[in-house]
């Protein structure tokens, strides 16, 4: 019976959401822009595929043994990279619009008191509301994925089983990201006396976690770790064309290799530099982990482009000399490499759902 | 049917309801009177299981509300003050949503909702509840309170938004429901409204029950704060002599007319004493205190 009551609340909330003008308008925009993004992604994919086919043709036609990098077939998942940015902007708006007045509207219209006079527990109401909102966002995500699948098929691109699985995982990760802001909006809707305030509080948190905390994290990180160690002045610097040995940096114009790996001053400098980067990375990671945008970007990049997963999971400590030699990890390995961000994507909405639950249970309904 | 034992609710250190002891019998129409802020709505919220008491207990049909609020909610109906609905749904859809919380199948729900909408004259209304007038919302509120055919009905300021015709229909309905054996608990600050339908009343002031009983009993209690007294008016054809009776508290005489304050209704004994004196009685009656004045005095202060 308890499940019946919860589902009764959830069904009504879901129905209210998908029939509300606000949700429909934002969803339509979201789907339209996603479709445009997918279309752009498909064009890019086709260009890369053409280039790949040309390289294969060149290899076949070449009489001399091929000495360059082996060409790699582009992944369909590149198409979904384009969806990420729309998910972050319009998806967040959709999630906030779904949750910011779920409870506050009931307080304003006094329907909450009427509802509570019937045999239903408070936790069933708040859980039902959350479930209804999640279902509505899930519905939006299913529509977006269905449209993207349809577009792939229209352009004669048939995903493999692995790619289909990756697309579903991308959808699940995107939904997880949307749940973060939905949970924030739901909490604010429970805390605020009316919907206007709930929306403002939600937007403040949105700006805080999406922009302010990462920026502040970088600033604090720089202050915390101090000035970077300076390289020794005595050692000569020589430009080399090969990539072997020594400390490697790169600019857009040339590669510079500091020859002097045996020099104790350089060894000390490299040690100091490594510690400095690790300390800086730690502070950055802590601030980034609080931002759903950052976590979503990292996890979805790992899903859509597993090759870069280790790079984006530890951008400050990754050994970039391995890029060309490392094997592309599978989807599970790629996700394992970004587990902290994935965990943060799960923890963030959980914390806010818990806050909404506690506040709703203690709410004064006079 | 309804019973409270030292029921107390404290908000921010201030008692909204303070040690309330109340009893309402089955089939009674009980008026819960008191000025705004007296604690009436808070009491109802505790009785309907929507908030928990800080101390004390309350029972509805023998069920302790705090122990099993859901069991209580299944047998009660509640019309809140300034009742609210889902503005995006029609009256019928609102009722259907609430009806789904009870063990009612689709056919039962449909039949019950149609019956209730007819009862409150909202059948055939297709507009959304958000477009309802306040009176229409109040009538829909009454329908939602009756959705589960409750044993006990709690009505908080039920006539606040009704027009005179609506008020008359509400009174008829409440009387009919009581006739069916339902207990009706009407909370109001309007004395005339409570007087029109209620057989017994409880009077709440500053969270405390000041008096309980019939309207007249409560009025007498209010008129004599030191304990219930009776005010008897006597008029004779001749001048009145001094009259003595152990229950007489005060005797005010003006020629052939006297106003007597007594501990009990001693009209028969007074009549006998006057007759023994050989006087002719023109009038001997119990003067009811002015109930409106008594309530107004309480409201003021």
Mean pLDDT across the residues of chain B is 88
Element pattern of chain B in H and E: EEEHEEHEHHHEHEHEEHEEEHEH
For the sheet with most strands of chain A, the description reads: 2 strands, antiparallel
Q: What oligomeric state do the depicted chains represent? A: heterodimer
What's the β-strand tally of chain B?
14
Mind explaining what this structure looks like?
The complex is a heterodimer of chains A (366) and B (301). With 366 residues, chain A is mainly α. Helix content of chain A is 72%, strand content 2%. Chain A contains 13 helices and two strands. In chain A, helix 3 runs antiparallel to helix 10. The longest helix of chain A is centred in the N-terminal third of the chain and has 41 residues. The radius of gyration of chain A is 25 Å and the shape is flat. Chain A starts with a helix and ends in a 5-residue tail after the last helix. About 5% of the residues of chain A have low confidence. Chain B is an alpha/beta fold and 301 residues long. Helix content of chain B is 34%, strand content 29%. In chain B, helix 6 links the parallel strand 7 and strand 8. At the A-B interface, helix 1 and helix 5 of A face helix 1, helix 2, strand 6 and helix 5 of B.
Topology:
The complex is a heterodimer of chains A (366) and B (301).
Chain A: H1 2-19, H2 21-61, H3 78-99, H4 104-109, H5 111-116, H6 122-154, H7 161-191, H8 195-225, E1 247-250, E2 255-258, H9 264-289, H10 292-304, H11 309-313, H12 331-337, H13 339-361
Antiparallel strand pairs in A: 1-2
Helix pairs in contact in A: 1-6, 2-3, 2-6, 3-6, 3-7, 3-10, 6-7, 6-13, 7-8, 7-10, 7-13, 8-9, 10-13
Chain B: E1 2-11, E2 14-24, E3 29-33, H1 40-47, E4 55-60, E5 63-64, H2 69-75, E6 76-79, H3 91-99, H4 106-119, H5 134-145, E7 152-156, H6 164-179, E8 183-188, H7 191-197, E9 200-205, E10 208-213, H8 215-223, E11 230-236, E12 248-254, E13 257-262, H9 267-276, E14 281-286, H10 291-300
Parallel strand pairs in B: 3-8, 3-9, 6-7, 7-8
Antiparallel strand pairs in B: 1-2, 1-4, 4-5, 9-10, 11-13, 11-14, 12-13
Helix pairs in contact in B: 3-4, 8-10
